[in-house]
Amino acid sequence: MGLMKVFSGSEILALALQKRIEAIGVDTVLKNNIQSARLGGFGNSGLAVELFVQETEFSKVNPVIEEFRMSI
Question: In this model, does residue 45 exceed pLDDT 60?
Answer without folding.
Answer: no
